[in-house]
């Protein structure tokens, strides 16, 4: 019998910025000179030029992927709208719109977006952002409804082994 051993791995220390590095580059900064070794950029803002420049600066590139942010999707696809405990569509938050995490059309949409992202760019990682229910907790009066009670979610919950 052969025992499996995990090779010791030196922890990777990330000192990154979130957002486009372009303003710092425009000021003539080399990010590695500022102690930065990674950038986290919204997946829709990544470009091949940005990655090339980041690599030249010795930076790792991570994509921020708005996993369960359904803004601009649920308005056109109301079947993916998050449903509250009363069986009603939740009200949108100011800038965030949650989504039903089990609605098949939305899941396929996000899966396809992620696949396109990974096939297009050579990334060091993906940050699955907005991996939460419909809620907006970054405001003085947060919106924290209980969701999702739609047909898809209730069926899946009913099948869950507890
Ligand atoms: Zn649901």
Descriptive overview:
The protein is built from four helices and four strands, in the order E-H-E-H-E-H-E-H. Strands 1-2-3-4 form a four-stranded parallel beta sheet. Helix content is 25%, strand content 12%. Helix 1 (22-26) links the parallel strand 1 (16-18) and strand 2. Bound molecules: zinc ion (ZN). The site of zinc ion has 7 residues, from helix 4.
Could you tell me the radius of gyration in angstroms? 20 Å
| Small molecules held by this entry | zinc ion
Please give the count of helices.
Answer: 4
Q: What fraction of the residues are assigned to beta strands by DSSP?
A: 5-15%
Query: For the residues shown, what is the average pLDDT?
Result: 93
Largest sheet: 4 strands, parallel
H/E element string?
EHEHEHEH
How many beta-strand elements? 4
User: Whole-Å distance between the termini?
Assistant: 35 Å
- Poorly predicted runs: none
Topology, element by element:
Blueprint: E1 16-18, H1 22-26, E2 38-42, H2 48-56, E3 60-66, H3 104-120, E4 125-129, H4 151-159
Parallel strand pairs: 1-2, 2-3, 3-4
Bound molecules: zinc ion.
Residues 83, 100, 102, 148, 150, 152-153 line the site of zinc ion.
Summarize the structure.
This protein is an alpha/beta fold and 162 residues long.
Write a concise keyword list for the protein shown above.
162 residues, alpha/beta, four-stranded parallel sheet, 4 helices, 25% helix, globular, binds zinc ion
